[in-house]
Design goal:
- The structure is a single chain.
- Helices cover 36% and strands 25% of the residues.
- It is α/β, with parallel strands linked by helices.
- The chain has 2 domains: 151 residues, Rossmann fold (3-Layer(aba) Sandwich), CATH 3.40.50.10170; 123 residues, Hypothetical Protein Tm841, Chain: A,domain 3 (2-Layer Sandwich), CATH 3.30.1180.
- It starts with a strand and ends with a strand.
């Protein structure tokens, strides 16, 4: 039976407790507010991040982990007696994190390391990580894990309701959603990921309509294998969860805070839903 460690980055938005329970190693990105730099999850909690966002006139920025940070995680897996590493990272279309992990994998000769660009982020990435960790715990080998995740990537959907596109625009992550900028005052946009890049999904006149639209997207995607909701200091999270009351999946609903990595670009008030459709 193979022993494979699953490694990911902090854009997965799994809490420390969720990652630990799954046996997953999380390599953190870095968050910058002006001249101040923080390691995600170590130097800055999610609550502190959102408090800074509200108080600061400067929009935060993110930086990918160094190859050395990934290399350290891969080395630790060898020290811990694992036979290989599966590293799942946020979309290479919005971050250099995947390239950093690839560089680290090439420098490691202690055990085989496979790096996969999930073309996803937040809990879309998180759900793929949980799926891989569950299979790895059952003894699946590296080739099987890579093949399974690659089959799930096209079935992984991410939608988000954002209060403003300011963060996405200034962070350079807006992609095809740029067309929405001219009518920001008139709409509450719903965005999605297309091939790992943020795109416009829908223009709705009010936030409640945006949330209902997003809940309908989850409902129409059934049957679902997994579903998760991420929340960026949004006051109406419970209202959105109630909208999903009749949406079912093979695995329990995962709810987690939207962390600094994605929150930097989505902004406060964001609510996202991530889905993996069933076979």
């Amino acid at each position: 039976m193979a022993r494979i460690r699953v490694v990911t980055d902090s854009a997965c938005d799994l809490s420390a407790a969720q990652a630990e329970a799954a046996g997953v190693t999380v390599v953190p990105l870095t968050i910058r507010f002006g001249d101040e730099e923080f390691v995600d999850g170590r130097d800055l909690t999610i609550g502190e991040f959102w408090a800074r966002c509200k108080a600061s006139k400067l929009l935060p920025e993110t930086a990918a982990p160094s190859p050395g940070a990934f290399q350290e995680a891969f080395h630790q897996a060898a020290v811990d007696g694992y036979d290989g590493v599966l590293c799942l990272d946020l979309s290479g279309g919005v971050s250099a994190t995947y390239q950093s992990a690839l560089a680290a994998a090439k420098a490691v000769d202690e055990l085989p390391v496979r790096v996969v660009d999930t073309r996803s982020l937040t809990l879309g990435l998180g759900l793929l990580v949980l799926e891989a960790a569950e299979l790895a715990a059952g003894g699946a080998d590296l080739d099987h894990l890579v093949g399974h995740v690659e089959r799930l990537i096209p079935r992984t959907l991410v939608y988000g309701v954002v209060d403003t596109l300011e963060h996405l625009e200034k962070g350079g992550r807006i992609g095809g959603a740029r067309a929405l900028l001219g009518s920001l005052l008139a709409i509450k946009p719903v965005v999605t990921l297309v091939d790992g890049v943020v795109e416009e999904e829908s223009k709705q006149r009010t936030r409640i309509r945006s949330l209902r639209y997003m809940a309908d997207k989850a409902r129409s995607a059934q049957p679902l294998r997994r579903i998760a909701v991420s929340n960026g200091a949004a006051a109406d999270l419970d209202e959105f969860l109630a909208m999903l009351g009749d949406v079912t999946s093979e695995h329990p609903l995962v709810v987690s805070d939207l962390g600094p990595v994605v929150g930097t670009h989505a902004g406060p008030g964001t609510i996202g839903v991530s889905l993996i459709t069933a076979d």
